[in-house]
Each structure stands twice: as structure tokens, then as C-alpha cells.
């Protein structure tokens, strides 16, 4: 069960922003290597994203685990859907699947972002 306020906040974020990264720390100062790795991938791909620091909000930290049915951070959302964590994002980047997913969903990357 996810608290309604937490659920509203998550849905506002993931519906209002094409790409949202729930992470430990901020894009400028990640506080965990797994979060830093996804920030690095997103920067390399050149996609704009909203970073949300779950360390600042214990309710959101737990709420997201329940909402996403995913036990760890980072969590990457694209167009309202969970893509996955660090391992998945890195694999998808290396295979080119992440770039295709963003293109298919109409999310600008590189010079067009
Ligand atoms: N294999 C994971 C690594 C991420 C991970 O293990 N995260 C841990 C440590 S940062 C986590 O979020 N634990 C739950 C918590 O801290 O609330 C992935 O692919 O994203
Ligand atoms: S904070 Fe220790 S592994 Fe992420």
C-alpha cells in the first residue's frame, strides 16, 4: 500500500517529466555509485531528466519501492513507466536499446535535447 500523498507526488513527477531518475543524491552530487552510473549514462546519451533525491524523503523512498515494485535505487522512469535500475540501464545503453526506447517514445537526445 502506497500512501496517497506519496502516490500523488510520484505520479505528478512521472507524468509531468519525460525522464525521471529517483536516485541517492543529486545529478550534480550523486551519493552512491549506482546512482552516479545512471546519471553518467543519461548525460552521455544527452537526455534531459529530472533527478529526485530519495535520501531527503524517507516516505518517498519506501513509497517508491512499493509503487514500482522495485526494491532498490536508482529507478529510472521514462514517460511514466519504470525502465529499471543501474544494471538494466547500463545494459540497455550498451546494446543501444535505451537509445531506441527514448527515440520510440519521442524523447529528444543529443543535440536535439
Ligand atoms: N543492482 C542494483 C544496484 C542498486 C542497489 O543495490 N541499490 C541499493 C543500495 S544503493 C538500494 O537502493 N537499497 C535500498 C535502499 O537503500 O533503500 C541496480 O541495478 O540498480
Ligand atoms: S548507498 Fe551504498 S551502495 Fe548505494
Automatic annotation (TrEMBL):
<protein>
    <recommendedName>
        <fullName>Glutaredoxin</fullName>
    </recommendedName>
</protein>
<keyword id="KW-0676">Redox-active center</keyword>
<keyword id="KW-0408">Iron</keyword>
<dbReference type="Pfam" id="PF00462">
    <property type="entry name" value="Glutaredoxin"/>
</dbReference>
<dbReference type="InterPro" id="IPR014434">
    <property type="entry name" value="Monothiol_GRX"/>
</dbReference>
<dbReference type="InterPro" id="IPR036249">
    <property type="entry name" value="Thioredoxin-like_sf"/>
</dbReference>
<feature type="domain" description="Glutaredoxin">
    <location>
        <begin position="19"/>
        <end position="83"/>
    </location>
</feature>
<dbReference type="InterPro" id="IPR033658">
    <property type="entry name" value="GRX_PICOT-like"/>
</dbReference>
<keyword id="KW-0001">2Fe-2S</keyword>
<keyword id="KW-0411">Iron-sulfur</keyword>
<dbReference type="InterPro" id="IPR002109">
    <property type="entry name" value="Glutaredoxin"/>
</dbReference>
<comment type="similarity">
    <text>Belongs to the glutaredoxin family. Monothiol subfamily.</text>
</comment>
<dbReference type="InterPro" id="IPR004480">
    <property type="entry name" value="Monothiol_GRX-rel"/>
</dbReference>
<keyword id="KW-0479">Metal-binding</keyword>
Amino acid at each position: 500500500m502506497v500512501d496517497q500523498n506519496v502516490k500523488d507526488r510520484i505520479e505528478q513527477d512521472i507524468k509531468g517529466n519525460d525522464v525521471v531518475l529517483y536516485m541517492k543524491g543529486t545529478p550534480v552530487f550523486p551519493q552512491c555509485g549506482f546512482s552516479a552510473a545512471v546519471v553518467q549514462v543519461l548525460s552521455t546519451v544527452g537526455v534531459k531528466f529530472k533527478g529526485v533525491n530519495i535520501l531527503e524523503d524517507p516516505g518517498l523512498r519506501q513509497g517508491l519501492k512499493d509503487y514500482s515494485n522495485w526494491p532498490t535505487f536508482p529507478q529510472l522512469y521514462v514517460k511514466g513507466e519504470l525502465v529499471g535500475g543501474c544494471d538494466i540501464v547500463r545494459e540497455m545503453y550498451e546494446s543501444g536499446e535505451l537509445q531506441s526506447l527514448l527515440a520510440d517514445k519521442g524523447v529528444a537526445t543529443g543535440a536535439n535535447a
